[in-house]
Amino acid sequence: MLNETVVTLQGWVGSQVALRQAGEAAVASFRVACTPRRFNRRTGEWVDGTTQWYTVNAWRGLADTCAASLRSGDPVLVHGRLSVHTWVNSSGVEVTGYEVEAQLVGHDLNRGTSSFTRTQRQEQPAGVGDRPRSDGAAA
């Protein structure tokens, strides 16, 4: 993970979660809107900044739990790797999009309550996912 930009977003789910298969892996994609709020001391009021939109992609088990847990309008925290993509749209305008490959996703408990249910992981065949031990012995 050298030279990667890792971010934590605090925002609101702005779309339904779309679950799809990419080869053998499940991928959940959804949009998150982040709108900063600042207190203006001169006026004594809170002011919304410009909303930034991010596409979030969650893979494998995280994809399944995002699809089962998140709904449009939910307050969320997303932590993952940021990538920026630039392209020219059909109108000939250069557009920049921000994507986050999620490592962690959760509800923002500053905004409400949530109920947690542990998911059962499928057992893997022997040897799959085993890490070698540091002493060289079999795991």
Features:
5-stranded mixed β-barrel, 139 residues, 8 strands, OB fold (Dihydrolipoamide Acetyltransferase, E2P), single chain, mainly beta
Characterize the structure shown.
The chain has one helix at residues 60-69, and strands spanning 5-13, 18-22, 25-34, 37-40, 45-48, 52-59, 75-88, 94-107. With 139 residues, the protein is mostly beta strands. It is globular, with a radius of gyration of 19 Å. The two termini are 26 Å apart. Residues 128-134 have low confidence and may be disordered.
Topology record:
Layout: E1 5-13, E2 18-22, E3 25-34, E4 37-40, E5 45-48, E6 52-59, H1 60-69, E7 75-88, E8 94-107
Parallel strand pairs: 6-8
Antiparallel strand pairs: 1-3, 1-7, 2-3, 3-6, 4-5, 7-8
